[in-house]
Specification:
By secondary structure, the chain is an alpha/beta fold. Helices cover 31% and strands 18% of the residues. The protein is globular.
C-alpha cells in the first residue's frame, strides 16, 4: 500500500472525516494545509497492519480517501471469473471495514494507475474540487 502526500484542496463529494472543526474563522486560508490524504491500496487489502493507512489517519487530515485501481488488464476477459469475483468481494469487505473504523469509503477506479493518479494530481478529479496546490 502507498500513501500519496496530502493535498491542499477541498474534497468535492467526500464527507469530512471529522464533523466539527476546531478554531475560529480564517476561511480557506486558515484551514490546515493537509486537508486530504489519499491512500492507494494495491495488492494488500488489509487494515490492521496497513502502515500507510494508519499514518494517514494519525496525521489529522480532514479527509481520508482510500483508493483502489482496477487495472484494465485485470477483468473477466483476462482472469478467471472466480478470481475476479473474489477481488470484488474483498473490495466490498474492505469498504465496509473502512466505513466502520475510519468513517471513510473506498473509491474504486478502473484504468491505468499512472494515468489516474497523474490526472488526480493535475486536476484534482475525481476526489478534489480543484487541483492540489
Amino acid at each position: 500500500c502507498w500513501a500519496v502526500a496530502p493535498a491542499t484542496s477541498l474534497v468535492a463529494d467526500m464527507p469530512p472525516k471529522q464533523t466539527a472543526e476546531k478554531g475560529g474563522g480564517g476561511g480557506a486560508a486558515g484551514k490546515a494545509l493537509e486537508d486530504v490524504a489519499i491512500v492507494w491500496f494495491r495488492k494488500c487489502l488489509r487494515l490492521d497492519d496497513n502502515q500507510a493507512l494508519v499514518e494517514a489517519a494519525k496525521s489529522g487530515v480532514k479527509h481520508l480517501c482510500p483508493v483502489f485501481v482496477i487495472d484494465p488488464h485485470f477483468g473477466p476477459d483476462y482472469v478467471g471469473v472466480n478470481r475476479y469475483r473474489f477481488l470484488l468481494e474483498s473490495l466490498t469487505d474492505l469498504d465496509k471495514h473502512l466505513r466502520s473504523k475510519y468513517k471513510s469509503r473506498l473509491l474504486v477506479l478502473r484504468g491505468k494507475p499512472e494515468e489516474l493518479f497523474g490526472n488526480l494530481l493535475r486536476t484534482g478529479k475525481p476526489l478534489l474540487s480543484k487541483p492540489p496546490r
